[in-house]
Design goal:
The structure is a single chain. By secondary structure, this protein is mainly α. It has 2 domains: 7-62, Arc Repressor Mutant, subunit A; 65-101. It has helices at 13-24, 30-37, 41-53, 67-99.
C-alpha cells in the first residue's frame, strides 16, 4: 500500500517537557536524547527554543492557543459581530426612512 510513507508523530505536552528536562536539568546531550527516543535533533532544539521563550504557555494542545491569542480571536469575533449588527441597523434605518417620505 503506502510503503515508505511515514506519518507525522504527535507528542503530548508532558512528554515534550520531560524530554526537555532530560537535556536542561539532567545534563544529557541533545544527540543522546535524540538517539534514545528516536526524535530528530532539530525537533529537540525547536522544543527547547519554544520552552525557553515561554515555558508557561509552550506546547499548547491541539486547538488551544496561548491566552493572548485566544483573547485576540475572541475580540476579532466580537468585532465582526458588532460590525454586522451596525450594518443591519444602517440598512433598517435606510429602509424606514424611505417608507416615511
Amino acid at each position: 500500500m503506502n510503503e515508505g510513507v511515514q506519518s507525522r508523530r504527535v507528542y503530548i505536552k508532558e512528554f515534550k517537557e520531560e524530554t526537555i528536562g532530560l537535556i536542561l536539568n539532567r545534563g544529557m546531550s541533545v544527540s543522546q536524547v535524540s538517539k534514545d527516543l528516536s526524535i530528530g535533533t532539530e525537533t529537540l532544539y525547536r522544543w527547547i527554543r519554544q520552552y525557553k521563550s515561554d515555558s508557561q504557555n509552550s506546547f499548547p494542545d491541539k486547538g488551544h492557543k496561548k491566552p493572548e491569542e485566544e483573547e485576540m480571536r475572541r475580540l476579532k469575533r466580537e468585532l465582526a459581530d458588532v460590525k454586522e449588527e451596525r450594518d443591519i441597523l444602517k440598512k433598517a434605518i435606510s429602509i424606514f426612512s424611505k417608507t416615511k417620505q
